[in-house]
């Protein structure tokens, strides 16, 4: 039987498994970030990307995280409103702004980042480090192949 001739069994369908697993992990993270820090997942992603990059545009955040521009915009507005992000003029493009963490934003990142790393450690504690490295490598390959398929 050719691979395309096999019946679709949702529970064995890899894209479905990826989605279910991603949702479980994201929901777990979302509950923790919301209860501890009052952050949504998109808000946390913005804070983390900005902490890694320094001043960055919303468009660049969207490209880096694959979040749509409405989600990025809403998260940025909320974080600016909370005093965690600041907007400044973009000297390279006057039509856009650069986002930076404020002092409060940097403090929040310093509090959240160790908790994020601890959650990752707990999620993968039962796996050998080589398995985790192989898993991450495979996820990156899947991402590249999927991006290529969508071009």
From TrEMBL:
Annotated InterPro entries: HTH_MarR-typ (IPR000835), Metal_resp_HTH_trans_reg (IPR052067), Tscrpt_reg_MarR-type_CS (IPR023187), WH-like_DNA-bd_sf (IPR036388), WH_DNA-bd_sf (IPR036390)
Family matches, as Gene3D superfamilies: Winged helix-like DNA-binding domain superfamily/Winged helix DNA-binding domain
PROSITE patterns: HTH_MARR_1, HTH_MARR_2
Coiled coil: none
SUPFAM superfamilies: Winged helix' DNA-binding domain
Keyword Ubl conjugation: no
Domain of life: Bacteria
Keywords, comma-separated and alphabetical: DNA-binding, Transcription, Transcription regulation
Transmembrane segments: none
Name of the protein: MarR family transcriptional regulator
């Amino acid at each position: 039987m050719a691979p395309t001739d096999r019946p679709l069994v949702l529970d064995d369908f890899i894209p479905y498994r990826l989605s279910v697993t991603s949702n479980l992990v994201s929901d777990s993270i979302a509950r923790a970030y919301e209860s501890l820090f009052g952050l949504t997942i998109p808000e946390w992603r913005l804070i983390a990307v900005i902490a890694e990059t320094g001043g960055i545009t919303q468009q660049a955040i969207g490209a880096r995280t694959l979040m749509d521009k409405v989600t990025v915009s809403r998260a940025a507005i909320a974080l600016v409103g909370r005093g965690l992000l600041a907007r400044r003029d973009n000297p390279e493009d006057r039509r856009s702004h650069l986002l930076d963490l404020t002092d409060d934003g940097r403090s929040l990142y310093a509090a959240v980042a160790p908790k994020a790393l601890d959650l990752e450690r707990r999620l993968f504690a039962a796996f050998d480090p080589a398995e985790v490295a192989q898993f991450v490598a495979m996820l990156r390959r899947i991402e590249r192949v999927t991006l290529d398929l969508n071009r």
